[in-house]
Please model this.
Amino acid sequence: MAEGSAAAVSADIDGGLNRQVVTLRSVLLAGVLAVGVNVIVNYVEYVVHASRMTLSHFPMGTLLLYLLLALGLNPLCRLLASRYAMSSTELLVVLAGGLVGGAIPSVGLTGYFLGAIAAPFYFATPENQWGEFFHPNIPHWLAPRNTNGTLNHLFEGLPPGDAIPWNAWFVPVVCWMGLITALFFGSVCLAVILRKQWMESERISFPILRPVTDLTERAATWEFPRLFWIGFAVAFGILAWNMINYFVPGFPQIPNIRWGPWIRFERYFPGLWTRINMFTISFCYFANIDVLFSLWFFDLLFIIRSGILNRLGINASSWSHASADFQWVPLGAFFAMVGWGFWTSRNHLKLVFMKALGRDAPLDDNDEMMSFRTAVFGLIVCVLFAVFWWWQAGMSLVLACAFVLAAFILYLGVARIVSDVGLVFISMPVGPQRFVTSLFGSRNLSGSSLTTLGFTNGIASYGKGLFMPSVIHGAKLADICPRDGRRRVLAALLLAFGLGCIFSVVFTLYLGYTYGAYNFNDWPFTRYSKSGFGRVMTQLNNPEPPHRLQLSLFGIGAAVMSLLTFLKYRFPWWPFHPVGFALAGTGTSVRYTVFSVFLAWAIKFLILRIGGAALYRRYVPFFLGVLVGYSTGVGLSLVVDMVWFPGGGHSIHGY
Model:
């Protein structure tokens, strides 16, 4: 869909009513959608054990509920009682809240956060010596104690007749929510500060919003041509066919849809995951073709480079992704990308700060979600509060400053890539915890600082940038809305965040004490919740100086990224987009989807080569149909699992 089509979404076409405004009910429904996403996702992942609903930057939980509202309930309301039907603008406000709400449950926030603060006391044993090394360094407000089996019952389930010990969790959760709120609101402030630069000056396209805004526009007139239904039938038919195997084991399935075998070229070279991910392909169709080419091209270079280095005895990669040392190459690229972004935005940022200080500046902030003064000073307060929070938790002041700065840089880097690329599965190559540990050296950090670093897994968010990507996409949706309603979009984001966090934390704890969190069979509560402290224990027992090799590779990555960025902007004919280098080999989230990216590139390349832009636009409905059909198939699978396979569901959505 063209950029103008996305803007046209805001035009009212609901039954002749002129309601092109951000209404109070849309703000409230944004909060309701966030609550619904958190309840459903936690239940599906922790109890039903079905598909992973929060791995992508467009969470499947959010997409399912939004499509149900926009393509199902709203047209029904328009047919039966038009005054209750929502306008396109209202639907986009609800979507903005849903994106924020979808970033909260499971591997978004609460799974990691609750698992991390419970781990140091529940997993402590005489053998691992956690009690001796960690417990004296943990303030009482930072983590709940295992008093009267509080944590045993969380992981193993409550004895019959016992009540959930809510009081044990109140103080730690409230204190952590103070930090999380600062990180969220700081992300909102950054989004406001950068909105004009990204959306008006650089014209970033936000590809993952294009299919959904197009569907929102088409739903108002039910403009779904034949190609849409063909795409729907293909995607839904494949998933429905494979569901027969649920009931008839051994029934033949269409291959490479649910899983894809790794293809290994030679034992020294990383492999290629060959799953055909229709979810990824449907979004990638709307991405820039040069970006798609660069993603798979640089991944191919990563395979070749890693294989040669591995053969020479240098540990450059595992069978799936870059080694711990060589992940610092794309990390340097991340930092260089963010740095280059600030450099190109320097004039805009100067005007923003002038406006915030009350000086005359040719920059209007009346069309922003908040004034530039609020955004700038809000960001400063949030950053200072986060530094103060980690300092009080046990980090040294210098370490806390470095950690918070690195976190915001990485959050912004992930958000920039998602906004520019359209790849729904990406993550940062190295988290801020590993960055500051290698930068300072574990031998130069106190036991208290290292212990506190173990808790930073609580905001890891699977390397997805926590709230920054969802917030910046919320700002884009606000940009589509009428100017006088954008402050209400901010209210929708804040309401979705607040209600989503409350319901997700409470419901997750309820499920843990009811079923036993260890029975969730989920990465945050089982392995990852204790991995941060296990890594810290290794650093305490084997202290190391600053990691020169990793820092050198970081510098190489930053230098190469800077060169590629210069070439891209200096020479229009340069075919390689630098973001491909920043993502090459970064982790499973990228490497598991690169084959699907290649397929999307090949399809789009052939369509453009055969019929140009006209043929590309003609096939847009087909890929919209693929997205809706795939989502409907995932939704049907969830219903089937809930009814016939509770506790033994089938994971069909993911990488």
